Amino acid sequence: MTNKxxxxxxxxxSEIVPLTKVxxxxxxxxxxKKIDEKNEVKHLGLIRTIKNKVNIEDRLKVARRTIYAMxxxxxxxxxxxxxIVSARLWQTYALPRACMIQGLPKRVASxxxxxxxxxxxxxxxxxxxxxxxxxxxxxxxxxxEYRIIERQLVMSKQTANTFIxxxxxxxxxxxxxxxQELLLVKPTREKWKTTVKCAIQDYWAxxxxxxxxxxxxxxxLDIKARPIGxxxxxxxxxxxxxLEVKKAEIKAKLITRTYTLQVDRAKFSRxxxxxxxxxxxxxxxxxxxxxxxxxxxKTERDKHLTTLISYVKNNIGNxxxxxxxxxxxxxxxxxxxxxxxxxxxxxxxxxxxxxxENITRTLCYGLHTKRTTLLNKS
Length: 378
Fold this sequence. Notes:
Elements: E1 15-16, E2 29-30, E3 33-34, E4 36-37, E5 40-43, E6 46-49, H1 56-71, H2 83-98, H3 110-117, H4 122-137, H5 144-155, H6 163-173, H7 179-185, H8 189-214, H9 233-236, H10 242-255, H11 262-268, H12 287-293, H13 298-315, H14 320-326, H15 330-335, H16 340-343, H17 350-377
Helix pairs in contact: 1-2, 4-6, 4-8, 10-17, 13-17
């Protein structure tokens, strides 16, 4: 029984895996009973071998099976479930087994996927758990775990595949103090968790901003200051309703520039197909043309824009809409009224953003359905 936790450790249920190149019996005893020596041992669902390797691929297979099993009940956006709900289910049931739900194509940037749902990458989850685990260990300098950490910091090689090596890599990655410094400072568990959370947020926000500069598909997507844990308004304000989810899916494709227009078909076909709009035959069909200029969609567009203009003038400001138009930010306003570019023009209240999102979601979907209908007739 340990002095710290008052937990009785049963030697008969304990096993040891020697992580050493020296071929010899270790003969480890717990009290007067010898602990069985094995070539591999299962702990917390992971099988660790004498080569210090774990069955990660097996866990990923379990995660994939879990996701596939959940697709039937409606994990996918195409089933009508809000991706916010789907993401929570994924984090609850699939991620623990691992450590398409937005209806977006595979070519969408990874950063866009994460930012829209406000979820953290699996690597971030692993790093956070590792850092928080270390933060818990350093709270008690009399514990066995603490003494092991102290010893490993001195003995472990930086290139070795050890806990300390992974810890130091994570600390460096998120610009946190070194492990030796933390042993001296010993931040409280709560303070350390907050520090880790902020550091992870800052790291991924910066990383995704860099990715945005390299990805043309992220032109209209605004990276929030603390993106993890804060879903984009496209999904945040979408109710768990089949039609509304379909509308939001179209808007998500537009904001990630994965809604296939004629300019994309020309690009994918290496200009075998023309980029000319097949509805009006007057200009290249890109996002701006589709949303603001195509004459074939004018009636449908004006119907929704009238509602949007009326709402903005009555609830935000009489001249705001004209200013947005003059600044050339109309597409940005429709796709993301809370973006930094729009904030430079006007600071919109939360409730107004919600209402604008509902109007523009219907606008995007209306343009999509009208375009699809006209193309099917031609």
